[in-house]
Amino acid sequence: MGNMDGKSVEELSTTECHQWYKKFMTECPSGQLTLYEFKQFFGLKNLSPSANKYVEQMFETFDFNKDGYIDFMEYVAALSLVLKGKVDQKLRWYFKLYDVDGNGCIDRAELLNIIKAIRSINRCNEKMTAEEFTDIVFQKIDINGDGELSLEEFMEGVQKDEVLLDILTRSLDLTHIVKLIQNDGKNPQEGEQDAQAAQKKRKEKEKEKEKEKEKEKEKEKEKEKEKEKEKEKEKEKEKEKEKEKEKEERHQGKKGRNSTHEDRKERKEGK
């Protein structure tokens, strides 16, 4: 437990282990994942009968000690193989996964059902049908033509044929599962939609902030205009005061001149 076909937990980085442990314990506080929790964890809902059977088979291959649960060490060992395992390690695991009845061989029906199940889960659109793909696999690597693939035939045949290896890797891809793990158990499409929604919200907030800034600028401009108006009013008042003062001074000057004239007149009359 904790090692699978040569891939050990120790080969993972500390950061990866901590990240996976946090996700695992968040979804499964008991530390032991049941089949039901396994499906819930990876968002595997409304599966077809073939897809459901495939998921159950996957659960069994993850459950190394066959106690009916997947603990953290089993979980990490399996996922580390999927993410970082070598081709031959992955092929051995694939073979074990696809050998549903456990008789040491993969027959045509087993492979066909598995291809259909995985395509159903991954929602992939392949040009080749599952039946056509299954026929090609058996034509190329069923050397003795007995309608069954032994581990040796499967390993050697797939590794020798690059085209088949590429098609097989894509058709039997577990990326959907890995993406669910990397997105905290969310469907990758949902995760992308959430990211887009979050980005949209950020942009909307930025626009709101820009609008608020513009409003503040407008308010400042209005305040400046009011200040200018007040200054103009003050200037007008000062001008009015100056005019009143000048008027008063002129009036006083006129009175003074009239008084002097009266004095002179009185003096003349006195003589």
UniProtKB/TrEMBL annotation:
This is Guanylyl cyclase-activating protein 1. SUPFAM superfamilies: EF-hand. GO terms for molecular function: calcium ion binding; calcium sensitive guanylate cyclase activator activity. GO terms for cellular component: cone photoreceptor outer segment; photoreceptor inner segment. Transmembrane segments: none annotated. Residues 50-85, 86-121, 129-164 form the EF-hand domain. Residues 185-271 are annotated as: Disordered. CDD domains: EFh (cd00051). One of its GO terms (biological process) is visual perception. Keywords: Calcium, Lipoprotein, Metal-binding, Myristate, Repeat, Sensory transduction, Vision. Coiled coil: none annotated. Pfam families: EF-hand_1, EF-hand_7. Residues 205-251, 259-271 have a biased composition (Basic and acidic residues). InterPro entries: EF-hand-dom_pair, EF_Hand_1_Ca_BS, EF_hand_dom, Recoverin.
